[in-house]
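Dataset card, provenance and construction

Sequences and ligand SMILES were collected as paired inputs. For each pair, a complete structure of the chain with the small molecule in place was predicted and serialized as structure tokens. The example below shows a pair involving zinc ion. Curators did not alter the output after generation; any descriptive sentences attached to a record were derived from the structure itself.
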Amino acid sequence: MFGPPAPPRMLPDPRSNANRPAEMPQAETACRTRLKALGAAFEEAKPQGSSDGCALPFPIRLSRLSAAVDVEPDAIINCAAAEAAARLTADVIGPAAKATFGEDLSGVDQASAYVCRPRNGTNKLSEHAFGNAIDIASFTLSKGTSVEVEPAPPEKNAKFLMAVRKAACGPFKTVLGPGSDADHSRHFHLDLAPRRNGGTFCK
Ligand SMILES: [Zn+2]
């Protein structure tokens, strides 16, 4: 075979080539302390990465966002994204569930956290490739109600979903969902993408 070399399957990111320090950085330990204080349950997980540039040097396996709220299935994720999700749960998702449905939030169903892959249709690494994102497909309430993220939810669900989506923008730097594009019609994508201006992209 002759001709130009194939383009890289994924473009590297500054985070791709960072060496994993032998000791956990202080930012990671401090995050774990805060996450525990929120009542979240998690364990340390094996470092993730690949020659394509995916990198998650200090992952956790997150099983609960608070004492009362389960994550289904457990998510392999970085601590910062887990903390943002736990805070959003405590500050907004739980209260909005109670106010809208009169039920307590009991579970958040995630569709993906760490996944070594590019963004759909590009060769740029997804925030999922750094464990810096979580996709939420549905919410489970204490009396068994399930609220799915979907393009045309029932009215009550729509109100709840809109409140969650709006509040997520800020704590999370990227918020996508139904209406953003075809890839996000059935889940909320929330990530902490580092941006030069610290701004948000919520669509
Ligand atoms: Zn996503």
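Derived descriptions for this record:
The chain has a mean pLDDT of 94.
The chain has three helices and eleven strands.
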